[in-house]
Specification:
The chain is an alpha/beta fold. Helices cover about 40% and strands about 15% of the residues. It contains five helices and five strands, in the order βαβαβαααββ. The longest helix is centred in the last third of the chain and has 22 residues. The N and C termini lie far apart (about 50 Å).
Length: about 160
């Protein structure tokens, strides 16, 4: 695999696993729970990194046991941590949508997939607006017990709530 940019959560400690699995030294951008905001400065830094290093792929990666996502689903002890309120809000919204569909319990893989799909769309849209169209953006969920990266659920599976009058 050619060099890629991986957006990871520092609580997952996946950088060395990614380099070992994908046999290369890659670039990493860390933010708690992949809650990165694509403001002007962050977007410019990502654009510069992609163009300078001719990167063709960007991956959002989270562990299936991510501490931040788990906290957003359950106790919300870190909700006051700077930058996490949007993430917590999105996870709470998706958790409530899952309950409406009578899923048995909360499926963390579906919640992770929902959030990764959301972040992929956001980054793709913003990069296209600044002229970066050649990079593919995808995501992976690292399954700790299996020690494997797996694809996440496509946007088709992730729930959105619609109200009709």
């Amino acid at each position: 695999m050619q060099k890629c940019l991986f957006l990871v959560c520092p609580t997952d400690c996946l950088e060395s696993v990614i380099n070992k699995t994908y046999n290369n030294n890659h670039y990493f951008y860390t933010s708690l729970g992949n809650s990165v905001r694509f403001n002007k400065e962050n977007l410019e830094a990502i654009k510069k990194l992609v163009l300078k290093n001719k990167l063709k792929k960007i991956f959002f990666v989270l562990s299936n046991e991510n501490n931040i996502i788990s906290d957003a689903i359950e106790k919300q002890n870190f909700i006051t941590t700077r930058g996490l309120n949007t993430l917590y809000s999105e996870i709470k919204k998706q958790k409530n949508n899952s309950k409406m569909c009578s899923f048995r319990g909360i499926n963390q893989s579906i919640l992770l997939s929902y959030y990764l799909n959301l972040k992929i769309k956001e980054l793709k849209t913003k990069l296209e607006k600044v002229g970066v169209k050649s990079v593919k953006i995808n995501g992976k969920i690292y399954h700790n017990l299996e020690h494997k990266f797996k694809n996440f659920y496509p946007d088709l599976i992730c729930l959105k709530k619609y109200n009709f009058n």
